[in-house]
Amino acid sequence: MKTSASKIMSALLLASVAFCPCANANPNENAKKMKYQLEALEYPYDALEPYIDAETVKIHHDKHQAAYVDKLNAAIESEASFSPDLPLEGLLADLQNAPEKIRTALRNNGGGAWNHAFYWRGFSPDKSQMSEEFKKAVEESFGSAENMWKQIVAAAVGQFGSGWAWLGVNAAGKLKICTTPNQDSPIMGNSVSSCAIIPILAVDVWEHAYYLKYQNRRQEHLEKLWNIINWKRVSERYSRALKENKVSL
Ligand SMILES: [Fe+2]
User: Fold this and answer.
1) For position 20, what pLDDT does the model report?
2) Bridge partners for 199 per DSSP
3) Per-domain residue ranges for the chain?
4) How many angstroms does the Cα of residue 26 sit away from the middle of ligand 1?
5) What tens digit of pLDDT does each residue of 168-218 get?
6) What b-and-e string marks burial along 120-136, b requiring 16 or more CB atoms within 10 Å of the CB?
7) How far is the CA of 119 from the centre of ligand 1 (A)?
8) pTM of the full structure
9) Are 16 and 94 contacting, i.e. CB atoms less than 8 angstroms apart?
10) Cα Dmax for the chain
């Protein structure tokens, strides 16, 4: 019988999401390694104003996130024997089998690349509603959506230093909130993360996510994110995690 951790690991390895190493697909360029891509934003830089300002979105995506992608590819390039052809989710779920020499670089930069892509897609300038299925689960676990958000904010405020707060589905099919330090991610599995969930929403607790507008006011920034959550997507992620045991970007 599989453990809950191995079930989640299997699910992540099987996940068919968009974040793939798509470059250099030309068969004439077989000698070159495939490269992971910077996931494009789904909205303009200023779309999340006034809750996240345009300058923060631009620097956060075009500089910070892009740097994680570049360093991830550089780490892979540096190890001649390593040529992954997995979606990034699969690479991160199987870190223990990556070359030890570059494992930390893959963890930090691969985590940074994937976590940010997932983070941005959890927001939208367009208001949307939770599905009835997800709303019912939220109310069962937290009493109300507002109370759930308070608990997510509290977890994020309580994360010492840099990291992430997550909402996700655990092996029992229940909604859970947890945090990870640095660029660690629930999709890395139990060998790296104690957050044994399939994530459906991420909150970035690195200062670069809010410092330009909010300076040291982390809690104020986090509370404002309530206004731009893409509940339609979070509901879809929830449904897939629950029914298919898979993560969705
Ligand atoms: Fe970030």
Assistant:
1) 55
2) 168
3) 4-43+51-120, 132-244
4) 32
5) 999 999 999 999 999 999 999 887 888 989 999 999 999 999 999 999 999
6) bbbbbeeeeebbeebbe
7) 9
8) 0.89
9) no
10) 57
Which residues have their alpha-adjacent CB atom under 5 A from ion ligand 1? Answer: 204, 206, 209
The third-level CATH classification (topology) of the domain covering 4-43+51-120 is Helix Hairpins (1.10.287)
pLDDT digits (tens, 9 = 90+) for 42-91: 999 999 999 999 999 999 999 999 999 999 999 999 999 999 989 999 99
Residue type, 63: K
**CATH superfamily to which 132-244 belongs:** Iron/manganese superoxide dismutase, C-terminal domain (3.55.40.20)
pLDDT at 26 over 50: no
* Long-range own/partner contacts, residues 162-167 (CB < 8 A, 24 or more apart): 162/205, 162/206, 162/207, 163/205, 163/206, 164/115, 164/119, 164/202, 164/203, 164/204, 164/205, 165/202, 165/203, 165/205, 166/195, 166/197, 166/199, 166/201, 166/202, 166/203, 167/199, 167/200, 167/201, 167/234
Percent helix, strand, coil in the chain, to 5, is 55, 10, 35
Residue 27 has pLDDT above 60, yes or no: no
Strand partners, 181: 163
Give the residue from 237, 229, 228, 121 showing the smallest Cα distance to 169.
Answer: 237
Distance from the alpha carbon of residue 67 to the mean position of ligand 1, in angstroms? 11
